[in-house]
Amino acid sequence: MGVVVAKPAFLSFEQPIAELDSKIGELRLVHDDAAVDISEEITRLEKKSRQLTKEIYARLTPWQISQVARHPQRPYTLDYIGGIFTDFHELHGDRHFGDDTAIVGGLARLDDQACIVIGHQKGRDTKERSYRNFGMPRPEGYRKALRLMRLAEKFGLPVFTFVDTPGAFPGIDAEERGQSEAIGRNLYEMATLKAPIITTIIGEGGSGGALAIAVADTVIMLQYAVYSVISPEGCASILWKTAERASDAAAALGLTARSLKEMGLVDKVISEPLGGAHRDPARMARSLKQALIEALVRYRGVSFDTLLSARQDKWLGYGRFKEMESQERKE
Fold it and tell me: What is the CA 208 to chain-centroid distance, rounded?
């Protein structure tokens, strides 16, 4: 895969793990030059580190999961494309205004199946983050995605989308070019697109910026990804007038994979390697590839009428149980 990490970066709640990792690193340096064999001590500390990581990750709060979802070393769309698909040929431009590098997409193969792949793309360093606009698409990004989806429909190809964005770009230039119309158009078109659509939430799934490429037949979510109508900081700023209460907002939003699966908004949750996808990107890619293949198999031989009927029933059914509950109270 494309992620090359020389030294792991640790989040604030992972500091006990970071301290152990530092000790292990020091012992390895000593071990190379020492006459005394300290390999057993290194093995003991490595085992202790794994156990500590298990304990910490077993009790993560929604806010801490949000931090893992945003981890700077977490695999991005192009990393998964490189690890899962072959023969990827990126296509550029929306044929209206220009190309948006916050969304990447093109033709590829999943095993022997030709397909269209689309996803948000963030950057790893300052230069690339600026180039990718921090993974926040402008209207031309969503129109490029729609152009590729129509290409999939024309040639009978399945569509795989990867969601990882804090939200659509809110700048004045994006609004001038019709940001809300572009998002709304994608929602409308995806609801009736005659092609199987399989979406994976790989990191952040923020508001309409995420949903614009996520109206799918199957929605998969990684264990430590998040998916919500607004970021925890944005929610806290609105409700409590301060972003410092982001942790409270994260708990209230129900943005974790576990919560969303319980509510029926996500079809499948894929477990991540111990410590998150960034700890073992290759293993994460293998697990996700298997899930994508299994999801695609379910749509082979399914007619478009059946596919669209099921997709529309799925999305129109969200929230229906609340209406039934209120109706029962009235009776």
Answer: 14
SS3 147: helix
β-pair partners for 86: 109
Token pair in block for residue 225: 């990804």
Report pLDDT digits (tens) over 181-229: 999 999 999 999 999 999 999 999 988 999 999 999 999 999 999 999 9
Q: Give the CA diameter of the chain.
A: 82
pLDDT-derived band at 325, boundaries 50, 70, 90: low
Cβ-based neighbours of 185, under 8 Å, separated by 6 or more: 142, 143, 146
Q: Are 146 and 173 in contact (CB under 8 A)?
A: no
For residue 281, is it left (φ>0), alpha (ψ between -120 and 50) or beta?
alpha
Residues 6+ apart with CB under 8 A from 214: 161, 163, 199, 201, 205
User: What's the half-sphere exposure (Cβ side, CA atoms, 13 Å) at 141?
Assistant: 27
Alpha-carbon torsion angle 307, 308, 310, 316, nearest 10 = 160
Tokens standing for residue 74: 């977490």
Work out the angle at residue 119's Cα, subtended by the Cα atoms of residues 115 and 125, and round it to the nearest 5 degrees. Answer: 135
